[in-house]
Amino acid sequence: MSREIRITPSILNADQSNLELEIERVSHVSDLIHLDIMDNVFVPNFTYDFGRASTLIAGCSIPVDAHLMVVDADRIGPEYAQAGCGSVTIHAEATVNISSTLRSIRAEGSRSGLAVKPKTEITDYVEFSDLVDMFLIMTVEPGFGGQSFMMDMIGKIERARAMIGSRPIWLQVDGGISETTIEIATEAGADTFVAGSAVFRSQDPASIVEKLRHLANSVAD
Ligand code: DX5
Ligand code: ZN
């Protein structure tokens, strides 16, 4: 049986004045909605405060995949899990006590995710494998949508896949995923794909999600 593929569109580059509608345009063809939370400290950009994010999470008809690009992830991670996210991902670089934060996220009923920026090596975090439901490899520097996929992350995706082995951990990639890059990321071992501008800068976002899924499935082993 081939690897299960998941597409998790990011609404970072969707129409921010109509977000509920934008989510509806893709939710029937997506696995989760990727919600980028930025605090203007961990990354030089700000997205939503907790109140706005909670409203989006509560109103979303499919599970939300929160990607927390914030300092103080130890405190904020469990809060997003409690708000009802299907998955909460914290950054290894922003978390003081990774084990207890991952445990708290799970205890609130959410899947737990651990992300690394391009310069951070994923194999340094192998010890957390039993506490993690998803590893996230950033394939751009976090902070903004619309950047180019960093081809030099391919080796890291391969190392992450090898590290995961037979564990049921999802392997997500985020940044520059499009119809031209999804196959190479899949071949390297990713199974869960964030796509922001490729989806929402299109006239027909749902058809792009379907195309991405089809392309990934066509090369998944
Ligand atoms: C960037 C965010 C991404 C962003 C991806 O820091 O984490 O989720 O929305 O956007 P694209 O797909 O346009 O690279
Ligand atoms: Zn993201």
Give the helix/strand layout.
Layout: E1 6-9, H1 19-27, E2 33-38, H2 50-59, E3 64-69, H3 73-82, E4 87-91, H4 98-107, E5 111-116, E6 134-138, H5 154-164, E7 170-174, H6 182-188, E8 192-195, H7 197-200, H8 205-219
Parallel strand pairs: 1-8, 2-3, 3-4, 4-5, 5-6, 6-7, 7-8
The structure holds D-xylitol-5-phosphate (DX5) and zinc ion.
* SS-derived structural category: alpha/beta
Record field, number of beta strands: 8
Tally of individual helices: 8
Shape: globular
Largest sheet at a glance?
8 strands, parallel
Structure write-up:
The model has no long low-confidence stretch (mean pLDDT 97). The protein is of the alpha/beta class. 47% of the residues are buried. β3, α3 and β4 form a beta-alpha-beta unit. The chain has an eight-stranded parallel sheet with strand order 1-8-7-6-5-4-3-2. The chain is globular and about 40 Å long. 34% of the residues lie in helices and 19% in strands. α3 runs parallel beside α4 and α6 runs parallel beside α8. The chain has a single domain, classed as TIM Barrel (Alpha-Beta Barrel). The protein has eight helices and eight strands; from the N terminus they run βαβαβαβαββαβαβαα. The structure holds D-xylitol-5-phosphate (DX5) and zinc ion. The site of zinc ion has 6 residues, from β2.
